[in-house]
Amino acid sequence: MNRGVYDRTWTLPDLIARYPLAVMPWVLTLSVAILVLRLRAPRPRWRRLVRQPGFVACGMVTAWLIIMLVSGLVGAPDARRWIQPGFGLDLVGSTSVAGVLILGAWTLLYVGGFWRPEKSRLDRAGRILGASWIALVLVLYLLRDLGRQ
């Protein structure tokens, strides 16, 4: 008897192994969208904006994404390489970089006394996304330690 996808019993290790692939595109897209929305007028002055942890988290992810895209373009001059898997832009494999960047930036904000969260939906959403990136790092390290990644 042929069993379909929905007949499979999912175990906890299976779900944990698929978590980064399922969550990462959504978190990445929302991080860039929150940054773009935060840069629209009316917005606080830059001095206040760069002290908001949600803005900093989304800004770090967007900067990381731009660096990854540019390095992928420079490393792939042949257009055929774009359709091949692993053409130099390994977003899931380098997710830990974004999470560590956010953790480092938040640590600097807090230790330096510049942590000024705003009571707005955009900053809260940015903080939730930053925490999601850090959770992705923890899950990836857990998977690596378990030998599943």
Number of strands: 0
Mean of residue pLDDT?
79
Whole-Å distance between the termini?
Answer: 30 Å
Following the backbone from N to C, one meets helices and strands in this order, namely: HHHHH
Structure write-up:
- By secondary structure, this protein is mainly alpha-helical.
- It has one domain (11-72, 85-146).
- It is 66% helix and 0% strand.
- Helix 1 crosses helix 3, helix 1 runs antiparallel to helix 5 and helix 3 packs antiparallel against helix 4.
Give a quick precis of the structure.
The protein has 149 residues and is mostly helical. Helices cover 66% and strands 0% of the residues.
What characteristics describe this protein?
mainly alpha, 149 residues, globular
Map the helices and strands.
Blueprint: H1 12-39, H2 46-49, H3 53-75, H4 95-111, H5 121-146
